[in-house]
What we know:
heterodimer, A: alpha+beta, CBS-domain, B: 21 helices, 77% helix, globular
Amino acid sequence: MKIKEYMKRDFRTVSPGTPMREVALLFFESGESVLPVTESDGALVGLILIDDFILIFLPHYIDLIRNLDFIHDFGALERTSFSIEEQLFVAGDLMQENISVLDEEDSVMKAAAVLHKLDMPRIPIVRGKKLVGMMSKNDVCKAIYDMEGHR
Amino acid sequence: MTAQAAIALVIFVIAYILIVTERIHRTKIAIMGGILLVVFRIMSQPEAFGFIDFNTIGLLTGMMLLISVIKETGVFSYVAIKIAKQARGDAWKILLWFSVFTAVASALLDNVTTVLLIAPITILIAEMLDISPFPFLVAEILASNIGGTATLIGDPPNILIGSATDLSFLDFVVHLGPVVVVILVITLFALKITFRKALSPGDIDYGKIVEGMDETKVIKDRALLRRSLIVLGLTIAGFIAHDALSLKPATVALAGGGALLIWSGTDIEKRLEEVEWPTLFFFMGLFVLVGGLEKAGLLERLATGILSASTSIVVLSLCILWISAIASSFLDNIPFVAAMIPLLLKISTSLFPNTEGLDEAAYKLYYMKESLPLWWSLALGACLGGNGTIIGASANVVIAGFSEKTKSPLNFKNYFRYGFSFMLISVALSSVYLLLRYLLFR
């Protein structure tokens, strides 16, 4: 079973210059938690993870407090908003550039193993440098289901 | 100077420069520097290992094990929330009690761990209450270094001094405790005046936010907390009694750490991961590096040089205090103190020679008693000096890191404005204390 038989060919992308506000809207509308960033020629340049997006908003010392169960209301912090410079962020500022990709000719088994190892919900699939699809854990499930059905 | 002495000096100086400039991790330098001394035959391998002070290593390891379990209990968050609630949103009261708690915890545990646990929750509470965290963080840096000065286990320079001189836990408390309390009180008073505007309330309903916090929720495992506190209490009792029981501090710390490992039923792999191996290896390498200077006779020469300038214990003590304080403001105080210790031992024995033919143990008691002001000067200077700049101590660097994403991050410049003057005040108070208690009426 090859990845290209099961990957999604219909997916949303953003360009490195897409403003943060549009990125947020796209996360919300698509329900996805990983968005690929591509150049105009379709070459993949990075990934934006929804966690990185949320982390700009969250003060990082909150990460260092082991247990937040004691709080109901963050008080003045609830009024936190993005700073002026953060509002000017574009997709290129938020994306991770050093990312793992798979080739469309790779096997579904490899996709399953890599997704599990990286703990990512989905992974970009390329032909050369060009982004041709996205393979999610759900797509892997579909492949496993088909395999069982053919036995 | 012999070729051997020259090689030892070159290795030490290069290692020291690399350590204080922090371009390469200090532990890597210490390991390589120590091993080069053996490669160049300044000392043999058994000699090199002989220079490592395993009482210091054992004490650090024992405390690290103990602290790694206590960290898990949530007790620091519990106390912090409790303080915030008791203070009913009064910012000055929160700052005061957070600082006192930081000072006490730094004296009894270690100051880096203390600020690692207390600073994030401080920032959170301050920001929830719409007060700038800046004064709180400055106060906690000062309190952690001041508190750590009071005990043998509070700050690495004291651990080194205590281990090399056989001064006991109680000696440190009795001799440094009083001046530390005075310095802390005066510092807190000065903080109140300095930051009175920043600590005035904003337009938020403190009561509602603070009452909404439930400190009982941060304690997940009450049995673990109880056991940890019992073992910590016994360990501190052990420290207080170690001299009377003829036990070394490392024995007490390792006994506490070992007992809690068993009683808490914790995972050993996880606990050993939390031991700060880089710190332990840094100390080991450093002991060998300083041993090289000693072996090559360089510290002997330096001691002779210093004593030819002055043999007055008043002058020497005050010079050690101020030089240590200024040096520790800008440089890592651990290598400084490690090199000062054998130097001071040489100065002590030269100043107070064994004229009455005492045996070795009796003679050590005699010259240690006579040279006490020198040692307390070194401890006070090296520990309090850490308050001078944002890079003066590890606790400062940790807090500055946490403050990065707040509205008023600490940097070299804005901390220096307050920290350096507070440091000067504390060292001036120490000078007065040393003069009155040890120097003027000998």
